[in-house]
Amino acid sequence: IRIQSNDEIGALANSFNNMLKKRQQYESRIQEQSLQSQQTLKDLAEQRFALDQHAIVAITDIKGSITYANDKFSEISGYKKEELLGQNHRILKSGAHKKELFTEMYRTISSGKVWHGELCNHNKSGGTYWVDTTIVPLMGDNQKPKSYISIRTEITKRKNAEKSLIQSEAITRGIFNAVADAIITINEEGTIEAFNPAASRIFGYEGKEISGKNIRILMPKTYRHAHQRGLDNYLSSGNPVIIGKTVEVEGLRKDGSIFCLELSISEISNGKKPKFTASARDITKRKKTEADLIE
Q1: What stretch of H or E contains 249?
Q2: Which residues of 67-81 are buried (b: 16+ CB within 10 A; e: fewer)?
Q3: pLDDT per residue as tens digits for the range 144-196
Q4: Disulfide-capable partner of 121 in 40, 92, 162, 240 (CB 3.0 to 4.6 Å)?
Q5: Rg (the chain; Cα; Å)
């Protein structure tokens, strides 16, 4: 309102104009805040969508009752969402973990801290599955948890692979310890890293006392230079001399005695630095029998 006057009407008009201006500024701020809120809600919705596509998400109250479950949670557990809501997470308990684990978990999250671990759950049909789990407390105004959000990633395949590897290693270890032939593993520098019981019996060294020593300790002096030259040549050129072959050589026992042995060497390729496994058999008796037959 434009009024060119210094009287009461002019003052009233100026006051009205100021009020109108402030009102317009207020409405502009409200509109801006509304747009920001809408953008924030949109961003949160997009983040939630992205999280739901990747992770198993659930929200529980402080008693552990499920108040929210996403599609992936329903899919992996075998329960419909309406079957999960209101239920306690104990319906997924597989019995694979000790009580102490859950006691420690609750102590952590109830104190407002984040808990992370791997859990084995069972689904509706009775099968089991593994999840990498992070539980985050959502704090209330009183600085105490008001609810908990659980974010999980399925790791069943990885856990099964780990179990198979452990079983495979146990079988391999059993064979390593049971075979009659000496089995010795060395690194590229010739350092002994594995020495089975048969090797201890044949060479006279205990595994602990020879671990970390160079393989040359098991060779007569006349063989050591040729061994090192052959190893260096293979590492630099890839040209094998005895690797992949079975040869007859002499070995040196802890007591200093020299004996005949049959030796096979193979390379262990794991994509890193090369290692070598030697299989050795004491053939002293066989060589004596051969010599007696010749006589």
Answers
A1: strand 246-252
A2: eebbebbbebbebee
A3: 999 999 999 999 999 999 888 888 888 878 888 888 899 999 999 999 999 99
A4: 92
A5: 37
